Amino acid sequence: SYELTQPLSVSVALGQTARLTCGGNNIGSKNVHWYQQKAGQAPVLVIYRDYTRPSGIPERISGSNSGNTATLTISRAQAADEADYYCQVWDSSTYVFGTGTKVTVL
Amino acid sequence: EVQLVESGGGLVQPGGSLRLSCAASGFNFSNYSMNWVRQAPGKGLEWISYSSSSSTIIYYADSVKGRFTISRDNAENSLYLQMSSLRAEDTAIYYCARKIPPEDGQLDHWGQGTLVTVSS
Question: Among residues A86, A95, A96, which one has the least CA distance to residue A20?
């Protein structure tokens, strides 16, 4: 079965840039979606189809996907960005979620 | 405004059954495929089931295949998850989520979730 690997945690200083990776075999050939989940809340879609932002998501959040790694970039990090982030793809008639990355803003 | 509201969670004994519901509003429910995703306490997201808009295509994760059944009533704008032979490892918050076409599309709206606890 297809697997997506994310770092357990990423720390970023206030106002700096955080890069969250999502590793998978030839993930560049798939459409990757990203979800943000704050403590005690349901997930929220923040990036779809590798780099597209839904309405209401700030331009500070961006995505890319190539080769074996997809990346979610959070620029000018704010306290409100503290959350768990999950990547996701569709493979062999199943949705696959990454293991999730906890982002801490220092 | 798109809204998804889950209900039906609660405490159930191992081996028991439970039926979850997801009431949809604010969009044409019959035009969208739907999913159930769960999250065990302190763990990540796990997709468990998919239903196409007309229920003609249904998928399950291996972890629930043969025990859980997804269904929907488009006239009632509702999605269901019938869970049986429940195990302790099924303890989780269960979310329903709307899927955007095509087949590998994103889950663009989620409900707030309903907690299922399997324990004696």
Answer: A86
